[in-house]
Specification:
The complex is a heterodimer. Chain A is built from seven helices and no strands. Chain A is mainly α. In chain A, α1 runs antiparallel to α2, α4 packs across α5 and α4 packs antiparallel against α7. Chain A is globular and about 50 Å long. Chain A starts with a helix and ends with a helix. Chain B is built from nine helices and twelve strands. In chain B, the strands form three sheets. In chain B, strands 5-6-7-3-8-9 form a six-stranded mixed sheet, sandwiched between helices. A three-stranded antiparallel sheet of chain B has the order 2-1-4, with helices on one face. The longest helix of chain B is centred in the middle third of the chain and has 17 residues. The relative contact order of chain B is 0.15. Classes of the chains: A mainly alpha, B alpha/beta.
């Protein structure tokens, strides 16, 4: 884990000049929520979509400055380069989810919390899907895949949200007899998929040529 | 026993291709890769640092030897501050020594913020040396001035006095850089054309053959007199029973490294 920290730090520094732009988007969504233009759940989905974009932007920055091949030449090697990216992506999603959670608690929208959690899980799983694609194809060739995957997953959710008038089905789903059990199962599945994705990416990068 | 060797390496990535490449490096040796654009020095550097993996053949090192290198232009996003760079490299835990980096930047009056390609390459160079590898691979971008490169090679030489290592250096077609190395490999389109010692040009190369087929496209006599002769101290006609009965086989003896590289580049020396 210690070997990954420089890579996580580098990713954070790479994105830091762009963070302010993303925060402006988040602020805009939440202002629109308060004005009643969009539902809170719609805002949550959009924020998750933006959070997904952050690590993808990193691939572009790395490609532009040639960090990927530089990182492989460093003592950390290929495995830490991949591990660092996964840690950063996971941390990023978690950070923004916690912010949204705090926000929901402040405005006392407790019924949206399971949905937030579900969308967060979905977001992490999407990253699990997108990261190996990016490691394999590189940022330019992976871009169409990114939009395709994001569109396929997010469109039904957004349509569902608009149809439900902002009341998603998940609060009812979590009313089953063992909500904690369900929660643990979801967490385990998300982590397992994410870890498998990491292993796949490691394998891809181990065989990849960085020229 | 060589510290590092390429053993019949072949590799193709898109249009970049090297074929059947074999050479070896010994301790404290600077080995230069020389050739014009398309010689595939970057691909060879990538193969040496294992950022690209060979299709055929193998890159061999002595057991436990560490290969580190820097090639190309930038490495970290240009908005990184000197403090962030320091922190990143210190966190990697390999003993990042920033002194040489700041010394070189100050020496060339390069700013510590808003890095351009020069600063980036110096950074990559310093991180490579800091890791104290056994094999150092340097592939500077074409835009880097000879002045900076010469200083970097002097820094490498100093490094080699205290650290047993060897250096694989891509020189482009720079005679000056090639001259600062111990041995050089001349490449054309990813194929070996010539391997020689740089400090023994006139005596050790001996007489080299001029291939008649390379003279086919030009008026033979004029070409020899105006183009080839100035690059050799000797030009001997050794065989009148020649190519198509028109062009005698010649032998030339280049006197300097520059002349040798010229003869190689123009396809005269084979």
């Amino acid at each position: 884990m210690r070997g990954l920290s420089p890579y996580v730090y580098k990713d954070f520094c790479s994105l830091s000049p762009h963070m302010f732009r993303y925060f402006r988007f988040f602020a805009l969504y939440f202002v629109l929520c308060f004005l009643g233009v969009i539902s809170f759940l719609f805002a949550i989905v959009m924020v998750e979509f933006l959070v997904m974009m952050l690590p993808i932007s990193l691939f572009f920055f790395d490609h532009t400055c040639g960090f990927d091949r530089y990182a492989i030449g460093l003592s950390g090697g290929r495995a830490n380069f991949v591990g660092g990216r996964y840690c950063f992506c996971f941390g990023c999603s978690l950070f923004f989810t916690i912010i949204m959670l705090i926000f929901l608690v402040i405005i006392e929208k407790y019924d949206h919390i399971p949905t937030l959690f579900a969308i967060y899980s979905l977001g992490v799983n999407l990253q699990s899907l997108l990261l190996p694609v990016h490691f394999h194809l590189g940022c330019t060739r992976a871009k169409p895949w990114y939009f395709l995957i994001a569109l396929c997953v997010l469109t039904p959710i957004l349509l569902l949200l608009s149809g439900e008038g902002g009341n998603f089905f998940l609060p009812e789903v979590t009313m089953v007899n063992h909500p904690v059990l369900l929660l643990i199962m979801v967490i385990l599945i998300v982590f397992l998929v994410f870890y498998c994705s990491y292993l796949v990416s490691r394998k891809i990068v181990a065989k990849k040529d960085f020229l | 026993m060589p510290l590092f060797s390429f053993d019949q390496i072949s590799k193709q990535i898109e249009d970049y291709k090297v074929e059947n490449l074999t050479f070896s490096l010994s301790t404290s040796e600077i080995f230069a890769l020389v050739g014009k654009e398309g010689a595939e020095q970057t691909l060879i550097s990538a193969l040496a640092t294992q950022t690209a993996l060979p299709e055929y053949g193998a890159v061999r090192t002595t057991e436990g030897a560490v290969v580190r290198g820097c090639f190309g232009g930038c490495f970290l996003p240009s908005h990184f501050s000197a403090k962030q760079i320091d922190k990143f490299h210190t966190a990697l835990g390999y003993g990042w020594d920033s002194a040489l980096f700041y010394h070189l930047l100050t020496h060339f009056s390069l700013p510590l913020e808003n890095f351009r390609q020069d600063q980036h390459y110096i950074l990559g160079f310093c991180t490579t040396l800091s890791q104290k590898p056994d094999i150092i691979v340097l592939n500077p971008p074409n835009s880097l001035s000879d002045e900076i490169l010469i200083e970097l090679i002097h820094a490498v030489r100093e490094h080699l006095t205290t650290n047993p290592a060897c250096v694989l250096l891509s020189c482009g077609d720079s005679v000056v850089l090639c001259g600062l190395s111990d041995q050089f490999l001349y490449l054309k389109h990813g194929k070996t054309k010539f391997i020689g010692k740089t400090n023994l040009v006139s005596t050790q190369y001996g007489v080299v053959s001029l291939h008649p087929s390379t003279l086919e496209q030009v008026h033979h006599e004029d070409y020899v007199c105006t183009q080839i002769r100035p690059h050799c101290i000797e030009l001997l006609v050794v065989d009148h029973q020649d190519f198509n009965g028109r062009y005698p086989t010649l032998q030339a003896r280049p006197t300097t490294l520059a002349q040798t590289l010229w003869l190689l580049e123009n396809g005269v020396m084979v």
